[in-house]
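Our consortium's second objective concerns turning raw sequence data into structural hypotheses that experimental partners can test. To show how far this objective has progressed, the report includes one record in full. It was chosen at random from the queue rather than selected for favorable results. The single chain below, 130 residues long, was entered without modification.
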Amino acid sequence: MNYIIDEIVKINVDGKEMDTTFKKYVNSLCIKSFSTLNGRVEAVRKLLKLKYNVPIYVNEKILLFKVVSFKTYWINYFNIKDIDIKNDISIIIFNNLEILELDVSKRVIVNRVRVCHKILDHKNKGLYIF
């Protein structure tokens, strides 16, 4: 998954296509890791002292950050290959070479990526309290 547009999401469950919301879909992914979407957002918010645009760490393959450009996009950090800018349009190139063009400054995207780095740094520290 490279990105999700925050609207009705079509998912495949047991061979049947179903409509769901972004929040319900991501919550179902989080629950597979014994947590909830709200729990993940609140934990990142507290650990990194964030108030807005909190990324969602789902698992080792999905870390979503929000970008608003005409629509709301949740971009999977782990699938980004490169970020470029052309004529004030940010261009995200994914590992599978899919391209997403957004009417957002590169600065906004780079700042979101920096927060994702902080999440991964914190996660990789392996701080355990017994």
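The partners drew two points from this record. Residues 3-125 form one domain. The chain has one domain: 3-125. Both points have been shared with the crystallography group to help prioritize constructs.
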